[in-house]
User: Fold these one by one.
Assistant:
Number 1:
Amino acid sequence: MKRVWYRIKNIFLSIIIKFKRDPDEIYYIGGSEALPPPLSKEEEKEMLDLVAEGNPKGKSKLIEHNLRLVVYIAKKFENTGIHIEDLISIGSIGLIKAVNTFNPEKNIKLATYASRCIENEILMYLRRNNKRKTEISFDEPLNVDWDGNELLLSDVLGTDENIITKDLDLTVDKNLLKSALSKLSGREKQIMEMRFGLRGNSEQTQKDVAEQLGISQSYISRLEKKIIKRLKREFNKMV
Amino acid sequence: MESKSMKQCKICEEWKTEGIYLFISFICSNCEKEILETDPTDERYQYYVDRLRRSQAPKNLLIQ
């Protein structure tokens, strides 16, 4: 008898929805049809029994009559930058999961359980989205020219041209310097090593070198200029 | 010609008989099962969100 009454009520509701005669309703994205109101305790029990029997109609009804909950919860997350339509889709997925995993034997209302599932689903999505905000694709278009050609991130990414030859060049330069230095007298070589930290020591000022060698700074300066000129000549001969 | 009891799934767009209704959108049992097994951290998740959104009409956003 209850089931017959429920069916009559449902048909009546469908007719109202069809002719849109109930203005005091919440509407779902997807049309002007109002979202059905929540089920009464008895109706919900009846639908849960249908679900237990494996009847998909029970599941559909439970989902349908709890969609207001999805819309209500989704609207709470509107300021997160995710479009309301996406939030409702995510919330709907949460509701489907809730109806599928709800255990009527546990002392909790379906609406309470579903609210948690819907909110969790949205929160998990937001967390994933926040993580991905820092990621960027190589195919990300940076700009588009007048002809509609996209400039992709991969087009501007690259390494320094000399990344492979840099170390080789440095080794060659070191060898050249070593060879040029070998042409200098012991004292000249010592001055250059002290001034430019060539033996792994730190560079020293002309004043420091002058003090250590017991000669004047101006003499060191003159010697340095002379030695550099000579080294340049040696380099030119070698290259 | 499709049978009367066949409905087009909003996710996979195939015509199926078994499934659930998400208000006005029909979701076949296969897609429902896949949705249940998909987590928001999965790559596939966005696909379902997009499909469900596509089944909505943004212009008719009539939530009060």
Number 2:
Amino acid sequence: MAVLITILSSTMRVFAGLGLATVISICLGVAIRYFRLIEHLTLPTITLLAPVSPVAWLPVAIFLFGIGNGPAIFMVFVALFFHMILATITQIDGVNRNYINVARTMGASKWQIYRRVILPAILPGLLVVLRFNLFGAWMVVLIAEATGVGFGLGQVIMMARNTFNPSLVFFTIVIIGLLGFGCDFLLRQIQRRILYWLPNRTAGLADV
Amino acid sequence: MSEPAICCRGVGKVWAAGTERAHEALRGIDLIVEDGEFVVVLGPSGCGKSTLLYLIAGLEETSAGEIAAHGVPVTGPAPDRSLIFQETSLFPWLSVWQNVSFGLSLRGVGKAEQREISRQVLFRTGLAETFDKRPHELSGGMRQRVAVARALAMRPKVLLMDEPFAALDVQTRAKMQGFLLDVWRESGASVIFVTHHIDEAMALADRVVVCTARPGRIKDIVTIDRPRPRDPFASEAVALRRKLTELLSAEVDRAFAEQENVAIA
């Protein structure tokens, strides 16, 4: 039971952080390309903060959210957010010009081009980004939990370390590995559903 | 209708104007395309013939001169001037019929009507059985036919084609030319077709516009008034091929010489 609660709480933090980072970064990334003003207001700051290690955010997380789920989720969020924004922008810039030109010759407005062409065109790339960041999220959540959130897999590792219990360390490592693998599998299934138009073999990795 | 389908007067285009990388793609293009005419623009690679199509389509702005479509100045893209690209430009996330009706859906045409128009256009272009397929399930030639069907669904007055068959094998290409001629005759649209392929130009064109190497200018305009389908081995065809080859090879030589100069400098 205790194992289950531990696993669930870590998983929940991973997904909460990943979900928040995904939604906000995609929205902001698209907005940056759509509105020049937003680009000028936010992009320099984002590029400035992107190389900062998530560990550096740890004190900030604790100032802001104290102890509990809050800082752990914030850590996951902050570790992924900046990279995902930059990835979204790169994806948008990489959209085949022909797609956009076809839509333009048919009289599409800017909004229609974004909604009907750019969004579906960047989706495969975004899902690949999401898969890579899922692993990142699992790495960060341990660091966050190790600092005293109360429970979670990171706490277990810290406890094992403090009690010189290597078998517990490796047991936890195996659990994390399995969880990461399971999450990735889940995401691949979702990917296959959403990206129905890609041939299965290359799902997500083919350039569109 | 007295106004020509497309009228270019002194059209020029400089890419990246005002920067170090500025280069002139087109200069002083005067070209009139009548309603229902099939014009092929023939030129060496990189002579700006694609640029001309982009300008006529309204996707890029001219640096000099002006372009009018049916007497109305071109200021931006319009659905009655459809551009068909060399590479596949079908949206892979849409089925064939959704691709064909994409332009209609932008205008807010109802779903049922979109399906109906797609069905008709696909039937007319001999693609009825691809209706529910996805682009990746089709061969290269089929995809280009769907791209043509998609353009036709907009009832264009002018079809602009940028080396649409260049990526296809020779046999498919010959078939596609026949297909295009059928479509052209039936739709009554004017066609401006860009290619570097002399045989293609001879099979298709009412008039062949031969372009010079960069910056692209019109070197000569050759009228072909033989009935289609044309025998590529008839004696007039051989003479014509020789003439076009000579016109073109001089430009290819010039283009190569220029590239070598750039490489040495």
Number 3:
Amino acid sequence: MSAENRDDWELLARLFGRISSFNREVEAACGLSLVQIRLLNHLIDNPSSTAIEVARGLELHPSTLTPLLRRLSARGEVFQTVDPLDARRKLLTVTKEGRERLARGLARVGELFGTGTRTRSALLLLDLQLSKLRAKFPGG
Amino acid sequence: MKDLFSPDGLRLLESFCYANTLFAFDFDGTLAPIVADPEAAACRPCVREALDRLAQLAPVAILSGRGLRDLRPRLPDSIRHVAGNHGLEGLGISARDAERARRQARGWLREIGEWRGPPGLEVEDKAYSVSLHYRHAKSRREAKTRIERKVLELSPAPRIIPGKCVVNLLPEGAPHKGIALMNAMERTRTRAAIYVGDDDTDEDVFRLPAPPRVLSIRVGKKATSGARFYLAKQGQILALIREVIRHVEARGARP
């Protein structure tokens, strides 16, 4: 491994650590993690989705999604009901409590961190770069 | 099928109201009660008023079997998205599809005109489709049987959609209410829809594959329907629209 490569991996690992700790800060500040915020937003835009549709839409592995949904359901923020046309399917929707928690959370995150055009551009670039890297792996 | 006014139904309805949703309705039997004289069909003033209010807050579409010219005056002016002729007229249907439908309907009218149909039969020329009404026939059952036999002889064979005391003839493979709803969603840039209908022609919407995300509601419970929810009777449409308005107002207008 070249010295340059080593620096790249070092940087990636540092980024991963920073994102994890940022996520913990967000969760402590507003009671919702970044993934939970994304999931609630997705369900508000796509009411009565099934878990499979959500996993596909958010590119999440079902094993990641299941505990997330369990936690939000237990807190009464996501509601699951059986599809009247197919008892094997469960339809997911965000409850009033979920919408309120999300609105409070987003407002708090906005107050604490704020985001400007520059921050958004930098995050978009990072997302693009990481997607490119991921595509180099089998199944990426 | 579940009652829309059950706790689960109301929760789903609420969640749709907070999404970027199109609110779409059939007219006869849904917004307006079925009456003996189709000419006299109208929304109750309170329903019309509620519909008008909703159209000022959110995108609303009406998909009806009536011709557009007949339908328009029966609706509040605030409703901008209207499809007639079971989805064949309005909402971006191509000129080619419309002309093909018009030609076929004219041909069927000629054939039916030469036929001695059952007494009480009323033939409605809807330009793009034909409706054969038998509400005023002495024996409705007999009239229906004779109409069904006759339409099997028509060429080219129409798509036959039975309704309440009516047999509708539409061009096979032509756009239908399901396609009209998708066109309306595209026009209004909505990602979800609530659709309420009562007729067999509304099954084209109820049976749309997901996505698009449609909360399907039938007026009247019917085991074979593709709708997820039902309203027990047409009179509940007012309660439904008012419930939607309540949530949309809480969410903030998104016209």
